[in-house]
Amino acid sequence: MYIDDLTDAVVECAKSKGWKVEAGIIYKKQTAEFEFGKFTPAGRDFSFSAEMKCANINSLIENIEEYYEDFDVDYETYIWLDQFGHGRNGAPYRMRAVLEDMEATEKMIEELLDAVRDIKVPEEY
Questions:
Q1: Fewer CB in a 10 Å sphere around the end CB: N or C, the chain?
Q2: Mean pLDDT throughout 13-38?
Q3: Structural domain of residue 86, as residue ranges?
């Protein structure tokens, strides 16, 4: 499986889970860059980037794992609140609703990660 095929497999996998995906390949480095995007249950337009190096799916999995492990639900909630603890920029009014939305976002990332882990790649790659 070449970088094109592997990139296409990742895009199709993510799309099957409801993600919008933009992918670009740097052939000289055999690297693919992905931008994953999806609306949260409360309507936040959420996205993050990940990279697959040397046409190695495990490098992409590690990159998404790192993002997932570093995703801070409390911080993400905090930046979506105003000084009174109510949502701003289209966020729900109640603090709890914003927190629940960020918890759902974390779950969305985890589900994407699990789906990418399940991509079948021939052993020689």
A1: C
A2: 95
A3: 3-117
Written as six digits, the tokens of 12 are 């199709």
Q: Which residue has the tokens 């994953």?
A: 36
In single-letter form, the type of residue at position 67 comes to: Y
pLDDT in tens, 26-80: 988 889 999 999 999 999 999 999 999 988 999 999 999 999 999 999 999 998 8
The reply to whether 123 falls in a domain is: no
The pTM of the full predicted model, rounded to 2 decimals, is: 0.90
Answer yes or no: are the C-beta atoms of 70 and 60 closer than 8 Å: no
Strands 31-39 and 20-26, bridge-based pairing: antiparallel
Residue 119: pLDDT above 80?
yes
Q: Does 122 map to a domain? A: no
Question: At a CB cut-off of 8 Å and minimum separation 6, what does 54 contact?
Answer: 29, 30, 31
Structural domain contains residue 124 = no
* Residue 86 backbone dihedrals phi, psi, to 5 degrees: -115, 155
In a domain, 125, yes or no: no
